[in-house]
Write a structure and sequence with these properties.
- The chain is about 30% helix and about 20% strand.
- The protein has one domain: Alpha-Beta Barrel (TIM Barrel), CATH 3.20.20.70.
- It is α/β, with parallel strands linked by helices.
- About 40% of the residues are buried.
- The structure holds iron/sulfur cluster (SF4).
- The site of iron/sulfur cluster has 9 residues, from loops.
Length: about 280
Amino acid sequence: MEPRNIRTACWDPQKAGGYLKERKLDVVYGPINSRRLGLSLGINPIQSVGENTLPFACNWSCVYCQYGADGLDESVKKGRIRFATLEEIKAGLEERLSSNEHYDSVTICGPTEPTISPYFDDIVNLAVEMRDRYRPEIKTSLFTNATKLRSRNVLPLDYVFMKLDAGNEKTFKRFNRPRGVKFDDLVDELKSADVKRRIIQTAVIGGKDGNIEDLENGSYVKVINEINPDEIHLYPLLYRPFPRFDLSAISREKLESLGEYIRNSTDSQVKTFFNPVNIGEEFRF
Ligand code: SF4
């Protein structure tokens, strides 16, 4: 078998969040070295318009988001984003997947919320079709804030990582800063999304503006027991957040003890992902 060319970039601590911003600008980008998905080829359904703009578009504005404070409305109003077409995505996937590069997965995940694309359902079908044609052995996945999942075509994907960082409306509003989304509606989406395996992923962040207290005080566990997911993934902050919020990275011990508490309080499989990033070390998300 021909040796495959493995291409990954190294994390530059000086760039912090800028690293991923740059890596995700193309319609089909990467591969990104993921803690859970190996070398993952990305699909970014939302593209920037004009020079020096980032294609950030989301209906949340989490305090720890590395992509910027502008939300979907602002991005649309300022004409800064456009939706990648199916033709562009197909061309990018065909080129990369038919190459001799090594990939372990194809992931729909831009510096955006992918489900806001009007082509989202077709993008899922396309990603699965291209995977089946060129790399039937690899996995397909999606990272999403899960606010629009119920009516979306996500069942064909192997993994859907759905975000839940809070245990109540108050923390949800303060920490995730959603626009037009109520916490109860999010919980309903997480309960009823049509997925192969229900996977919740939760950022665990310290500091005055963090969410760790909410995760430890019982409210998160109560909601998790309502949702009853198959898996819960806990991960810490790995990049430098915006200075205007008081956020801090937690220790490995803290993450493990939180994991143990949730494990003992729910029927879900709890996994912790703590990879310290040192200078010169490869970046993983
Ligand atoms: S849901 Fe994701 S993309 Fe949207 S603001 Fe939060 S971290 Fe950023």
